[in-house]
């Protein structure tokens, strides 16, 4: 009996050494979670059951559990490295075989899919053709590296203040080359269907108390006919409180524009043009087109107060073509692509999975786990949703192994091994004594 007890102790100490050695070996493995050997005692039992003081029969390995406490966050220089601060696992797919990991070594393969260092594809919510996230549809995340196509300007919104103290210019008629023929001006860029930039310039001429004319040139030319330098124009009237009079604007008779019932101004006849190399240059259509529905200009929030002319807000939705300049991933897992044209586009969203019993996950190597019956079904969601942790881009989660603890465990396991070996040695000596009896 003592031989078996000592032998079980040797086996237990060996397994403890193996587990501790594995922890030490993976102290530098990102996303690794340390294990712990858990032992239980064994008692001998007879056919009729045990007595009130049963004799011990050794030790057995109860379980090797993993400790999923948080590892330190280590910042790297790779924007696609990801660390989870809190609960959850990355979901990866190897040709449809799903596994879960805390190691955030991610990059892109030759097809643009986000993969880890073993080529497993990271899972998340993808986007449709318009860049809208497809929530609930988990698939392989893919980074679109192609150039972003240009977009023709469809909407131009402005908020400006015209100085009510200005007087009517004495120089008439309006001449864009003569600043004395207008009171104020401002410019912004708009784009045609090929991504060509054009300068949209507005000249404001006071015509009387609370009344102004807004003259518009594009590239210094008439929007409808690039061979002309005469502007398109619309009259703006303000109330005694300094607000734009929308009913008066709707009832006006603009030149080259139309005014909708809500007070927005529409430019639907613009012909994009470009000059040639002659001197003076000759302007002609450049082969591109304006937005098919025209350009909607919204100046309804503009005012006329006794302060200097200022443009408080301007925005337009057109842009030229752009090349991928960089990627950013926020703490909710949303992947933003930045382009050289100043635009950004959502490329997808990383999802995380959590389990009712993470101890029940089955380790399969490569710092990965798979679902088991004991773990339960995965609960998939976006980072920071519910109990799921936040993502940190450009960082990795270090192993949670504490080397000082593991080295102490080595000493303890070694002593246990020596003590059990001594038990066998003593039993052997006693047995030898009995054999030597005469």
Describe this structure as you would to a colleague.
Residues 4-33 form the Flagellar basal body rod protein N-terminal domain. Belongs to the flagella basal body rod proteins family. It is found in: Bacterial flagellum basal body. The strands form eight sheets. Strands 5, 6, 9, 10, 23, 24, 25, 26, 27, 28 and 29 form an eleven-stranded antiparallel beta sheet that branches. Strands 11, 16, 17, 20, 21 and 22 form a six-stranded mixed beta sheet that branches. 14% of the residues lie in helices and 38% in strands. The protein is mainly beta. It folds into three domains: 2-69 and 401-435, no CATH class; 73-146 and 348-397, no CATH class; 155-316, Flagellar hook protein FlgE (Tick-borne Encephalitis virus Glycoprotein, domain 1, Sandwich). It is built from three helices and 31 strands. Strand 5 (89-94) and strand 6 (97-101) form a beta hairpin. It has helices spanning 2-25, 246-250, 403-435; strands at 35-43, 56-66, 73-75, 82-85, 89-94, 97-101, 106-108, 114-116, 121-127, 133-140, 155-163, 184-191, 197-208, 211-218, 232-237, 258-259, 265-267, 273-275, 283-285, 295-298, 303-305, 310-316, 324-329, 334-339, 344-350, 352-354, 362-365, 368-370, 379-381, 390-393, 395-397.
List the topology elements.
Blueprint: H1 2-25, E1 35-43, E2 56-66, E3 73-75, E4 82-85, E5 89-94, E6 97-101, E7 106-108, E8 114-116, E9 121-127, E10 133-140, E11 155-163, E12 184-191, E13 197-208, E14 211-218, E15 232-237, H2 246-250, E16 258-259, E17 265-267, E18 273-275, E19 283-285, E20 295-298, E21 303-305, E22 310-316, E23 324-329, E24 334-339, E25 344-350, E26 352-354, E27 362-365, E28 368-370, E29 379-381, E30 390-393, E31 395-397, H3 403-435
Parallel strand pairs: 11-20, 11-21
Antiparallel strand pairs: 1-2, 3-31, 4-30, 5-6, 5-9, 5-26, 6-28, 7-8, 9-10, 9-25, 11-22, 12-13, 13-14, 14-15, 16-17, 17-20, 18-19, 23-24, 24-25, 26-29, 27-28
């Amino acid at each position: 009996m003592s031989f078996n007890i000592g032998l079980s102790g040797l086996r237990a100490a060996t397994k403890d050494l193996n587990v501790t050695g594995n922890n030490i070996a993976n102290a530098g493995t990102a996303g690794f979670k340390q294990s712990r050997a858990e032992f239980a005692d064994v008692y001998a039992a007879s056919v009729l059951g045990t007595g009130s003081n049963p004799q011990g029969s050794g030790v057995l390995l109860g379980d090797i559990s993993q400790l999923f406490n948080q590892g330190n966050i280590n910042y790297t220089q790779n924007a696609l490295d990801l660390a989870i601060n809190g609960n959850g696992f990355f979901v990866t797919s190897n040709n449809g075989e799903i596994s879960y990991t805390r190691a955030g070594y991610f990059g892109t393969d030759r097809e643009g899919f986000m993969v880890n260092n073993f080529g497993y594809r990271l899972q998340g919510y993808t986007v449709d053709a318009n860049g809208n996230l497809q929530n609930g549809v988990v698939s392989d995340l893919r980074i679109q590296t192609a150039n972003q196509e240009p977009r023709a300007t469809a909407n131009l919104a402005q908020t400006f203040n015209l100085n009510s103290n200005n007087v009517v210019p004495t120089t008439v008629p309006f001449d864009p080359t003569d600043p004395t023929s207008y009171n104020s001006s401002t410019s912004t860029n708009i784009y045609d269907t090929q991504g060509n930039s054009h300068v949209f310039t507005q000249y404001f001429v006071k015509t009387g108390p609370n009344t102004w004319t807004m003259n518009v040139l594009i590239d210094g030319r008439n929007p409808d006919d690039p061979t002309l330098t005469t502007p398109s124009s619309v009259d703006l009237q303000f109330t005694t409180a300094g607000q734009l009079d929308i009913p008066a604007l709707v009832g006006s008779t603009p030149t080259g524009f139309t005014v909708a019932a809500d007070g927005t101004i529409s430019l639907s006849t613009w012909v994009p043009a470009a000059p040639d190399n002659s001197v003076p240059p000759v302007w002609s259509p450049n082969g591109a087109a304006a937005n098919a529905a025209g350009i909607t200009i919204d100046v309804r929030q503009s005012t006329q107060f006794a302060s200097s002319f200022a443009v408080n807000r301007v925005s337009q939705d057109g842009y030229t073509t752009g090349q991928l300049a960089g990627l950013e991933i926020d703490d909710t897992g949303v992947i933003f692509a930045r382009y050289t044209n100043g635009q950004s586009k959502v490329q997808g969203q990383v999802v995380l999975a959590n389990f009712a019993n993470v101890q029940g996950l089955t380790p399969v190597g490569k710092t990965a786990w798979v679902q088991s019956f004991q773990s339960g079904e995965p609960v998939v969601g976006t980072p920071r949703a519910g109990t799921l942790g936040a993502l940190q881009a450009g960082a990795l989660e270090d192993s949670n192994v504490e080397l000082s603890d593991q080295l102490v465990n080595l000493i303890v396991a070694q002593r246990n091994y020596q003590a059990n070996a001594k038990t066998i040695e003593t039993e052997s000596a006693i047995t030898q004594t009995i054999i030597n009896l005469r």
